[in-house]
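INPUT
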Amino acid sequence: MNRRSFIRNTALVGTTAAAGVPQPAPAAEPTPRPAPPDATGTLARFIVSARFEDLPEAARTEAARSLLNWMGVAVGGSHHETIDIALAAVTPFAGPPQAGLFGRKERLDIMNAALLNGISSHVFDFDDTDLLTAVHPSAPVVPALLAMAEYRKVSGHDFVNAMVLGIEAECRIARAVTPAMQDVGWHATGAAGVFGAAVATAKILGLDQTRMCHAIGLAATQPVGLREMFGSMTKSFHPGRAAQNGMLAALLAEKGYTSSLHGIEAKRGWANVLSTEQHYDAITGDLGKTYEIFRNSYKPFACGLVVHAVIDGCIQLRNENKLTPDMIDRIDLAVHPIVLELTSKRNPRTGLEGKFSVYYAAAIAVIAGQAGEAQFSDAAVTDPVAVALRDRVETTIGKSLAQDQARVTIKLKDGRVLNRFITHAVGSVQVPMTNQQLEAKFTNLVAGILPDDRARHLIDLCWNVERSDDAGDIARAAAAA
Amino acid sequence: MNRRSFIRNTALVGTTAAAGVPQPAPAAEPTPRPAPPDATGTLARFIVSARFEDLPEAARTEAARSLLNWMGVAVGGSHHETIDIALAAVTPFAGPPQAGLFGRKERLDIMNAALLNGISSHVFDFDDTDLLTAVHPSAPVVPALLAMAEYRKVSGHDFVNAMVLGIEAECRIARAVTPAMQDVGWHATGAAGVFGAAVATAKILGLDQTRMCHAIGLAATQPVGLREMFGSMTKSFHPGRAAQNGMLAALLAEKGYTSSLHGIEAKRGWANVLSTEQHYDAITGDLGKTYEIFRNSYKPFACGLVVHAVIDGCIQLRNENKLTPDMIDRIDLAVHPIVLELTSKRNPRTGLEGKFSVYYAAAIAVIAGQAGEAQFSDAAVTDPVAVALRDRVETTIGKSLAQDQARVTIKLKDGRVLNRFITHAVGSVQVPMTNQQLEAKFTNLVAGILPDDRARHLIDLCWNVERSDDAGDIARAAAAA
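OUTPUT
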């Protein structure tokens, strides 16, 4: 389209934003494309009619696991300086104390609570991941839903149904444009996550087909998040703002605010504007037959997935052989080249730098038997025992290894040589974290923030979410006393 | 970038959103581009150091004209159902009554007030326009600034300076990607307008260079608005949400929330992600030497610009010849083909349809001598006198005519033939509306919403904005008693 036709379609035609009169048809395309399927309408019909009773048990189970994992990282991140700063910025303008900040005492209106809890759950980048799309599925959906559940009573059935459907929407829509949208530069968790929050909220509100489409349209027009922001606090802003944008979309649509009925697939809709490729069958195919949440994965270690296989192997050998640092002569790691490309810091000096050091990661795994946020503090990374062992870690490139594989060889001072080959690290879809491991992760994250008995109560509430009369109890239990 | 490198850069590397450790360098580009200029930093430096005393008189004058025009459309649109719906949606979650809704009695927190006033100012699509970019410059900037000015005292000097600078930022950034960004499908007023609101708010807050860059980065990650939404209420949502997003960006940056320092020009920054072309000299060239606001234009008629030349010609002939409908035999219009392509509704039945009928537009111009919102009501469009005259309007295509030209020929029953050729319609940059015409437009728009004496007072406040001790007085005067 040239400048003339751009002007034709904008400044010259601008007029009242009321419904009724369609915009004049644009000039004919030189190479007309086949009309896309009615992705927005088809998805909306599925969401509107989907019932809790239709969910397979595996989806309900995974929802509880996702909720528990999400709540742990949200509470765990709640005292990060990122939250303190954001809270200071929004508090003077916030509404009534309708919903709590998890792990904290403050209460805000539901919109701002969702923003803050969404940021909090992503500051450690330790939340759940859909590896196909790089969407962190819970981060935009759960804070929106929990805020709604504190504001108006939501049953456990309705909560789980809305959560599964929100994740369904955002991950399907993201899949339709993956990897092209991410290559353009969008952060999928914010750019597609807004649909998750909108659909989940709209389902709680009981919107009909037309209003569900309007909510999706209002979400489509508010994508959040450029990948340029990775490495700054703005990255965790993305899921928080996506939660808020999605809630606003649903709440506006509920009152009759109109939008496009084809916000996803229209010529100038979300998929065409944000991405160079579109695969709409990812959105419309097999609805209700398979669920995106089946694919959800949880990180056992508080660092990039690229070093998880190394950590997993080290912990296995440590636990099986009751290793202590003084027993070890040296550790040899064979890894995929990407591991060295991304995490080859020899002398990390801060917790964050430690996350980019496969040497430190192997050492701390042997020393601590875990690799949570506590193991990536500044103090842990500079501890002399860790530094000494880290200096005895060597790496080689294993040419036949996949990205998520690693071979760990530990040579002991007594002459023994221990070996472990990791095919898939724990936390992958193939070797998911067990419920017990998820509980341990949760407990580590909330330690020092929630009392032990409160933490145990919150774990039980998450496991039993679908049997709850009032899912808002979960949010209330997650606030600091 | 292929799928492997996408995964490499996202899921595998995700980690804490603290500053300090740069992301690992991406794989080398096959065809490296020259590094873009430091557009974000250069713009920020200009904004941070720019003083009211540096503004040329023409910029200050145009700021007052823009403010008056904007306030008229904001008050005029304030009782549109779009506002009632949005207000119903946000009120339960809104914060303290810090800022007023113009033309109404309600007060909301500054964020929600900016959202609502931003929507209100665009529902008629009767606000100011930068014809180069199709940005409506005031719509994201002024509601943010007026809300801030009600919340904390802002002098007239600071208000005008921030307003000019906000418009400077959004229009320069939009120019850097026009028309490619609009062709991709973005609504420039929301997608670039967010920078206007962020920069204007950040200037009021007195942010330093680094925080100004962070505010720009936080704005960059929150563009609003797909062109698909044109024709629904969501179009006017765009400037309102852009105002709000920009304010949030500035308020977060003020407290120390970090973002990219290169949000505009980075490889995965705003300009590369939203547009297929980038001309950074539009952002960095001649800063402080020429001002975008010089180019601002105001619509005299409440319909698309495409029919403004016809209306202008009809009104001129009517006024010069004291025409009444019963004197007229027929009206012949020679117009550019685009006029018929876009506004050829022969039998409009609603006010909105009337905006898409050049026949009705010519008739009502002769009958009423104006074409404001009142002339595009359902009743006006179906009035028998208008219908009768409308049916006596004929059109031909004038092949040599430009888009903004028209030839109007009125044949009277007494045999006289009146001719008028319009080279540029009133309201264009070449034939700007006079101050008197802007006042008349304002008065028509606010009639029935604000009492006459209040309207007069508000006009005076707008003209004298730069001499105000407290620009919040303007906002307070614009609220309904």
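end of record. Chain A touches chain B through 111 residues (CB under 8 Å).
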